[in-house]
Amino acid sequence: MSQTPSPDPLELSREKSRDDYSFDGLTGWQKYRVLRPGRGMYHDVKRRLPYYPSDITDALTYRVIASTIRMYFVNLLPAIAFTLDMYRRTGEFYGINEALFSSALAAMVFSILGAQPLTIVGITGLIGLFNYTIYDIVVIYDASVYPQVMAWTGIWAAIFHWMVSFWNLCDYMRYVTDFSSQSFGMYVGIIYIIKGVEELVNEFTYGSRAGFLGCLIAMLYFGTIYGLEKLGGSTVFKPWFRGILADYAYVIGTLFWVGFSHIPGTLKDTDLSYVPVVRAFHPTQPRSWLIDFWNLDATWVFVSLPFGFLVMLLFYYDHNVSSLTAQARQYPLKKPGGFHWDFFLLGCTTFVAGLLGLQLPNGLVPQAPVHTDSLTVYETELKVISTEEGEGAEIRRPIVRAVAVVEQRLSHFLMGLAIIGTMTGPLLTVLHTMPAAVFAGVFFVVGWGAIESNGMLEKLIFLMSEDRFIQRDEPLLTIQKRKIWMWIGIQAVGVAVTVAISQTIAAIGFPVLITALIPLRTAVLPKIFSRKELQVMDDLTANSETVLASLGGAPTLPENIRADEYGLERRYSESRRGVSRQRSGSLH
Amino acid sequence: MSQTPSPDPLELSREKSRDDYSFDGLTGWQKYRVLRPGRGMYHDVKRRLPYYPSDITDALTYRVIASTIRMYFVNLLPAIAFTLDMYRRTGEFYGINEALFSSALAAMVFSILGAQPLTIVGITGLIGLFNYTIYDIVVIYDASVYPQVMAWTGIWAAIFHWMVSFWNLCDYMRYVTDFSSQSFGMYVGIIYIIKGVEELVNEFTYGSRAGFLGCLIAMLYFGTIYGLEKLGGSTVFKPWFRGILADYAYVIGTLFWVGFSHIPGTLKDTDLSYVPVVRAFHPTQPRSWLIDFWNLDATWVFVSLPFGFLVMLLFYYDHNVSSLTAQARQYPLKKPGGFHWDFFLLGCTTFVAGLLGLQLPNGLVPQAPVHTDSLTVYETELKVISTEEGEGAEIRRPIVRAVAVVEQRLSHFLMGLAIIGTMTGPLLTVLHTMPAAVFAGVFFVVGWGAIESNGMLEKLIFLMSEDRFIQRDEPLLTIQKRKIWMWIGIQAVGVAVTVAISQTIAAIGFPVLITALIPLRTAVLPKIFSRKELQVMDDLTANSETVLASLGGAPTLPENIRADEYGLERRYSESRRGVSRQRSGSLH
């Protein structure tokens, strides 16, 4: 499985172009981002374009096949899961055909044109939350205008996207730290778990027999995927076999439990609900694909404006964070990304999806790093640490190293083709055989993945553990426990408020809360926490050099710590255990 | 929780009396065990009697309360679980009232008169297997004689028990090694899991709705107990809190999931099956307690003789192994036991239980060590091992030490009283609220406990693991992998054959197979495996000095290894991690 990364003849030009894009240190009118529209996009394209040929030639390796299959499942299963929820809660406006169309559109655009083709774009739970909250609002007045309102929301959102990308405003993403991105990850995880439970509750509307069987399948599905992925990360079996388990956990689990639900007899006779499908390539509702957005009262057009702004705010955070985590420092990436250009593209897909009445796609937060992970060549190294117990009693620690990443466009593109294939009649019929309960299991896997590996939980376990068994060089020991409690306490309040609001009709306001965590972190927290405390507990989410190149260079936060001096805790853990393989759903 | 063990003023006399009982090295007629009947029993009583007052005075400590509650659940829940199975499969002859009566009888006799009151005696799955296999045989001819046949089986079994105990034949238990006791533990674990599945399958006879809910409750019950016990063995939380979790896992889990099944609405409306009860203190069938054993054809009386012999053979192995594991070397026991005397008592309870038509009680293999464990004062010590990584990076390893055991009779006695209390009307009504699905969960917890900690599985994981991550001083590395495969292969064949036979009408023959593993080990295996291999992989099951005192001293096996030179593997593991807390169900 060894693989030489493509040589980098353009190293020099990249170095140069990175130096080219920054607003730091400029004076006069030059320092105002909005006065130099398109500068970020121009540099993004200029920086990335030279790599385009290698994005295709680098792709001829087995990892691309494994990655395509894994991402097809990891992208499609949650998309369908969220669509089941949206379908019920938007008067059956958004269905599977829209979900597939939207996912395929996003995959085609971003795999061919994206500056960073590693960032998978698709349907998230948050856009689902958005769509049905707007439905809840619209339905109070007149449900029939919902398609047009959503079209206008998409149009406005697209316009705001283009403004943000032309005005180089993605630069502010460099101020995002783990404080807010972990809170966001926890929020997303909790929402996923809630969606899973709701899916199972819905199963009971088909009778308690279906409900109980649904719960059973969801739990066993969760156990299967979770167990296979754990096994994949253990030291049991040969490395190649473990690799297969980790790569194909979703394939194995999904095939098995879908098949299980069709075993003739008691299981088959139970009225489980299945994925609802309509005629291939047709909208779920009897309508043409293009929404007649011109038939809408001016009042509603303007009501859609704040909706569009909020969508942009959500995507600004959600898409860019997902792109950041797909390019996190733990992956030895050689090729640069481009945040401004990708956000412009996202505006385009938002525009098209809005006009066609599709779910608006954007970067998938918990799944984004899975794509990079699936393309990463890992090697489990043996680190022998001799102890005072003498020869033979050395600690033999497995250290997982990410050796190289197969950076290319083909896996993303092939996954898109597979989704287009899924839109055809025969494969739609296959989709229809999948019980909704399996998707509840998907929610649990992805949601729990985001929670289990979350820094908030890690700190909590540290605080709850018996002190004497913690190694003395653990960085968290250098700061007061009270301060750690306070840190995760503030995070928890942020998460709790956002989760709570998501259950109400005010849910569309949640992007404001999430983005508000960034200024809270930069402006307020340095006054409460010392430099040292921030250094241990926090870390820049945009922490790799290739990433910061597109964002105008490393940020300067009030506490005045150099970008590479954050994250003592994370780096301590990595030096011990190596990087952790990215299971689907885990944010860090 | 510190606790000073009672001082041992009788140390000297014990030393003396241990020397007194042995047949090794004797010559002439003196060396024949059967020619000196009752010698073992005499020494057992003589050895133990001086400790009787301290068995009561030592009991005034909190551990006895925790132990009583834990054992009440760990003894009663599986007993009821097996009875549900027996009830269905013996024409509803054996019911809950019989199970409670039998358990109470055994608890009273062994807590008051037993030489080793730590050994809990009750209803096992194997006697259930026995009872319904005999039913299957009898029913071919005439179902109505079943009670009398079982009474005679009990009578014959009692007679054989008394012969074994008077003839000092329990001595041969010292030849039992982990080879056979681990195979037996694995066999028992598998039978338990099968019983759990059968219990759930039976739930489907009440409709698939009840079946699915039953599966759900069983899985969640399993997860609850397993999770709580794992948490109890971790380093999270304060030690006293972890202790509570471990002590009361069954109480918490059982109360919660029984309550869950009664939540009004969908859950309550589901037709789960509950523990069937009849009038308090009355036999399940309309009969008097005393079986009219005198009304039986002489043919059947003699047919019952081999049944009785097989029961004795089963109990010979099962009861004595359970007693051995309750007194395993890992527990710092000060007071001696007495195998001959206890087996005599077991004959008496077998006799009485046979006449009254109760399930014959005997030592509970997977649960036996749980009683000792619940009375053990553990301390989790910190072992700091410095490494080459320098100061602060020392390995901080938790080592669990068993500091002392509260050796007394009161917990066993109080548990017996609690069982008698459960026989009354009001508490029978409480029992009736328990869904059978919870008992399927009990089967899974106890069965999986016996499998998870089994040496066979440990060796298998060793064989499957990547070699380079195994510490070099691991004793299994000193022998050929091929030989380890062969060792667990032979064990696996033994287990597979016994499990297979248990599913047929020849099931009553399984004690022969199990006891045949002992001569197989002593006579055949030393020819296949080298001294070194036996030393690493095998260990005496009777491995503490207080135990061997009653069995006539340490055995001499053909490979000629000293008793304390076996078990290199086990001792290696203990030196690393300390003893493992005995979760219910784990045999070693």
Task: Annotate the secondary structure layout.
Two copies of one chain form a homodimer.
Chain A: H1 11-20, H2 39-48, H3 52-57, H4 62-89, H5 96-113, E1 121-122, H6 125-141, H7 146-166, H8 178-203, H9 208-232, H10 239-247, H11 249-260, H12 266-269, H13 298-326, H14 339-356, E2 362-363, H15 368-375, E3 376-385, E4 395-405, H16 410-422, H17 425-432, H18 436-452, H19 455-464, H20 481-502, H21 510-528, H22 531-537, H23 545-550, H24 568-577
Antiparallel strand pairs in A: 1-2, 3-4
Helix pairs in contact in A: 2-14, 4-5, 4-6, 4-15, 4-16, 4-18, 5-14, 5-16, 7-13, 7-14, 8-9, 8-18, 8-20, 8-21, 9-10, 9-11, 9-18, 13-15, 13-21, 19-20, 20-21
Protein name (chains A, B): Bicarbonate transporter-like transmembrane domain-containing protein
Keywords (chains A, B): Membrane, Transmembrane, Transmembrane helix
Domain Bicarbonate transporter-like transmembrane (chains A, B): 39-205, 212-540
